[in-house]
Structure formats: structure tokens, C-alpha cells
Amino acid sequence: MPELTVSSVLTAERSVGIREVARLSGVSIATVSRVFNDAAAVNPETRERVLEQAQALNYQPSSLGRNLVRGRSELLGLIVPNVAFPLYGEMIGGIEEVLGREGMSILLALSHDNVDSEFTAAQHLLRHAVDGGIIINSRLGLNAPLPAPRGLNWVQVAPEHTGTPHRVELDNEAGGRLAALEMLGLGRRRLAFVGAPGRESADRERGFAAELRRAGLIYRRAQGDYSEASGVQAAGELLEHNAAVDAVFVAGDLMAAGVLRALHQRGLRVPEAVAVVGFDDAAIASLLYPRLTSIRQPARAMGTAAAELSLRLLGGHRTEPITFPPELVRRESTGPPSRLSARHF
Amino acid sequence: MPELTVSSVLTAERSVGIREVARLSGVSIATVSRVFNDAAAVNPETRERVLEQAQALNYQPSSLGRNLVRGRSELLGLIVPNVAFPLYGEMIGGIEEVLGREGMSILLALSHDNVDSEFTAAQHLLRHAVDGGIIINSRLGLNAPLPAPRGLNWVQVAPEHTGTPHRVELDNEAGGRLAALEMLGLGRRRLAFVGAPGRESADRERGFAAELRRAGLIYRRAQGDYSEASGVQAAGELLEHNAAVDAVFVAGDLMAAGVLRALHQRGLRVPEAVAVVGFDDAAIASLLYPRLTSIRQPARAMGTAAAELSLRLLGGHRTEPITFPPELVRRESTGPPSRLSARHF
DNA sequence: TGTCCATAATGTAACGTTTTCAGTTGTCGG
DNA sequence: CCGACAACTGAAAACGTTACATTATGGACA
């Protein structure tokens, strides 16, 4: 019967549905569904027959249909400023690990550090009926909340000012304290800080300042914008205005790279003359010369935490914000000062 | 009537559908659908009324329903080895740009540079009925092709050996030639190459070697594995075995960072004594000291090309592989040699 | 024999959309 | 006043699945 062959080829072409399998194995579609979701009891013989047919037709249950009726998509929306920044990449790695374990997939959208595209990104994701959402470094605060129907809760990976209880954040203040203590411990006394706009940097500075106050010291400060160029610039200011600086805490690794460069150019040895501590422990930290001591953000762990938080939320549980402690990673850019090479003027 | 209130709250809770909008604006669901797809002519007044209601109810057409009936998901699957590597991040940025313009979203999966998880990643994406797929640096060659039902075509961003015509790749050989020409042009004559496993590195070396042969020169070589440590190691070998090397071409920027470090440690000035050219022009290139001259992969452009290729494929058109030319980005690690500081022994 | 129960299977109604087909108007030329 | 045509609208049939309610089929038990 050539018709049968032709028709079966055709049906194979246009993606075979549950009805086809049901028809060919002589059961109802409901039974086929049960076989694939092993929910209720199904006669082993029947199950066998169904599975056989399914195999033959290369049938795969469609997520679309399933999700439509279940009201779930097994998708988790993720909004990231960009993907080229390694710290975000690490977080995504952590998120993926948890989600993969749970059989969920990541729907990715980029916010470009921009409120408008953040908003449209959220809408995009929502249209796909994501079950949950994680947003990293959202610019939208409490004032303009993200769209969120059906009781969907966004998990924010960001510092406190976003106001949501569904939050994973780094204890930036503790990071600043860590940096200060390290420098003080090394015997440095003429400290400086290079900051950047935003809450994170302010928190880092607060911790740093608190420890210095406690030690009865003051510090110089310069302002950058997280870019390498601004680090060069800031270091220039610090060194010119004020002759004697023997340690610099920089609010970001990229800026720290700039600071190192400025020091090189002035012939100041690191760490002998000036010690430098960065922040984030981005991938570049260990590639710089000398290798940069930095305050590490456990980005991957923060990613897994955010994903787990989102899953818990999805299960209807309550959650609490999670705060991660930063960690000092000691490398070559810090060490004891050398008397001889201190900045002389 | 409290019941009404309760029920209306409930329906508001559980996501408003096209029916609700239709009912409240006194038209049929078909008309609402038409308004949102501006397919057929709709009375401007009616359209207005519908849009008003939709706005009031915060109605968003559900992709699920739409895709179910259309047999499309407006999803494009993307498989990447990892996201922490900036080059991939840039590509993703390019892909997102094109896709966003087309209203499609990215379903992300990680292959972890591992054939098995690459395969399961593909299955994951397929279950979500992605319309197309892009896979970056796939390990699966022709031998074990990716699963691909319904005439779905994977676009590969990878060198030629994957065999598929749906491909975006970099002309690695041209990159090698570029590096060689730059060094020769600077008057360097004692060249070396640091390679890594895999086709890419081999192609880069082939181009490099071809230009040297043409100039009647030979070169030293050492082998690494793209890691910074292996760069340090390789540079060590080159400098010890062979006293006189005045230029090193390194098949990857991370390794180049290692080479720079080894040179620093030996007190060899870059570029005066030894010039260094990296490959990829990763973000770190411009952060190293000195800033690294590198052969740039136009990663973002390759991403957009891959996305466009995928869209064209999706539209049923035929496509050809696209090859991108690399570009030399000149920075501080190359320059004319200085007689005085050449390696003396 | 009749009742009850467990098991196995089935039928049908959703889910939220788009699309096709079949209207219903209203307008205009003849 | 008729017919043709355009503009607009609505009903209903998909799409692939699950959930709910229901129906057979036996067997155990009183």
C-alpha cells in the first residue's frame, strides 16, 4: 500500500503530534500523554506499544502544547546588561548550572545598562510566559517596577536600593573593610581610594573609610567611572596632588588596571612603592602585571543562589535576601612596603 | 456583590487573555487578533476601542498561543561553550542585536566545550521548538551531527572542518599572514610562534609560516594550550633554547599575556627587545602592559552575520559560508627593534 | 447475585492564539 | 433598484497538550 508510505512520510515531515501516535497505536491521546508523563497507571503492554510507535514516528512531545495547558513554560528569563563582561558571564554559568539540573532553560535578553531596553527586554520575556526571571544590575528601582503579571517575581542581583526582598547581593561594605585591613596590616599608612558612580562604589568606600577612621587615619580620594582610562586619570591626580601615597584601593578591576599603568609610567614599583587592591576579581586581575590583589565577588555562587531563589519563589515559597561576603584574593600587587622606594619628592 | 469583585480579581490575577479583551470591547476575538497583527483592515474606531481596553487590562498577546497555531516559536537556540569568555560575549551581543530587531529571543544553552553536554543542550533547545539554532565552536563534527528535526538548520560559528555550508568563520590563515607581515615590516628577523591545539591555531601558523618562507626565514615554535600559564612556559622555552628571538606571534591573547609576563621577568623590554603579537584582540589585550598588538576577530560582526544567516535559512533561502577577514590592531607591544637591547648572551 | 473497588482506558473540555470562510453592512456605478 | 465590490466582522476550526470526569472490565467480598 503505497499510500500508507507516502502519508507516513508526509506526516513525518510536518512534525508528528500526539494524535498520530494515538491513532497508530490504537489508544486515545490521553493514554499517550500518560505514557510520556508517567502520571497514572498504564497497562505495560499498552505503554510498550505506544513507546514503540512514538519511536517509529520519532515523536517528541511539544513543549508548546504542554506549556500552553500547564501555564508554565519551563523557561526562566534572564536580563543582563551585557554578556561581554566576564563577571556576568560567571554568574550566568552559575545560573545555568542550577537551571539545567531542574530541566529549565534560559531565555536571554540584554538591557545594555539602559532603562528603556531593560523594560522592553522584560516585556519580551514575559510574552514568552517565562516562569520566573532574574535581572542583574537593574537600573529600574522601586519607582518604575518591572512588569510582572501572574504573580511572577523578579529576582534581582543587585545592591539593596532596589527594595525587593527577592535579592542576591554582595556585601560591598565588607569588601571595603577587607581592603583597608589588608593595607593597614601591611604597614601602609598613606592610603587612597578610587571610586566610581553608584551605590556599589559608595558602599565599598564606606567600609574602607570606617576601618581607616578606626585606625585614626584619613585617606585621599579620586573619582573614576570604572573604565581603565579613568583609572589612569585618577591615579595621576592622586600622585600629583599629594606626594606620598603608598596604597590605593580601587573600586573596580578595570580601573585598577589603569592605576597600575599610571604607576608603571611614573616608575613607581608595585607593590614596593605603592600597593594596589582592586575589586571584583575579574578574570583580568590575574593577567595584569603585577597580578592584581582584588576583592573577590563570588559571582558564580551568586548566580546559583539567584537561580535557586527564583526556583523557590516559583514553588510558592517565601524567600529572604541573600548577602554574600566578599573575599580578599592576595596576589602580587600587595606586599610590604620598602623604605627606599617610597615616593620621594 | 462581593462575589463579582472576587471573581474579577481572580481573573485579573490569572493573566488576561484575548477573550477578555474581546468581551470588554464588544468585538470578537478575531478582531482583537487582527488589531494586534494588523493583518486585515479594521475599523479605526474599533481598533481604538480594542487598544484602549487592552491597555487598561494590560493585555499582552501570549507567544505560547500564537506559536502553537503558527508552528513557530520565535525562539532561536544558541549554544556557546561558556559565557565567561569575552569573545563569545561579543558574538552574543551581535546575535542579540539582529534577533531583537526581528522580534526573536535567544534561548541560551552552554556546551562547556564538551560533546555530551553539547548534545543534551541541543535536545533541550529542540524541545522548546526553536525556529533556528546557532552553535559556536561546536565539538561535534560531521561524524556526530546535531539533532535537527523539521528541517531545522544549525548555523555554526567555527572553522571549516565542521563541513556544514551554514557557517561563519574567521580567516585564521590571513591572520597569521598579517602577524608575519607586521613583524617583518618592523625589521624583525628572528621570529617565533606559540601555538595551541586545534585547527584554528594550525591555520594561523600556516599563514604565518607562508609569509616567512616567502621572506626566506625560518622560525622557532613552542606549544601551549591557550592558557596564560602555558604562555609563560612557552616563552621560557623559546628564550632558553634559542638566544635570539626578537618577535613572538602568539595564537591567543591569554597566552600572549603569559609571554609578556615571562619577558618582563627576564628583564626583556617589549617592544624594544622583543615584539609580541597576540590573536583575538580580546578585551584584555588593551589592558596588558604594554598594551598588546593583536589580530582582531570581528566577533560582534561574526555574531550578527551568524544571526542573519540563521534568519535567512529560516526563511527557506539558500546560504553560503561567510568568511571574515581578521584585522591587525597595532598597540604598544610592537614597534621597531632597538639594536642595543637585543638579546645578548 | 449484587455491591464495591481498583485498574485501565476513554472522551471531552479546556489553554490562547491565528486563520479561513462566511457573512453583514455600506457605497457606488449603471 | 440591482449587482458588484469593498470594508469590516464573527464563528469555528485548528494547533498539541493536560486535566477532569466518566466509562468499561474484572475481581473480591458479603
From TrEMBL, chains A, B:
It comes from the Bacteria. Signal peptide: none annotated. CDD domains: HTH_LacI, PBP1_LacI_sugar_binding-like. GO terms for molecular function: DNA binding. InterPro entries: HTH_LacI, LacI/GalR-like_sensor, Lambda_DNA-bd_dom_sf, Peripla_BP_I. SMART domains: HTH_LACI. Residues 16-70 form the HTH lacI-type domain. Keywords: DNA-binding, Transcription, Transcription regulation. PANTHER family: HTH-TYPE TRANSCRIPTIONAL REGULATOR GALS, LACI-RELATED TRANSCRIPTIONAL REPRESSOR. This is LacI family DNA-binding transcriptional regulator. It comes from Deinococcus arenicola.
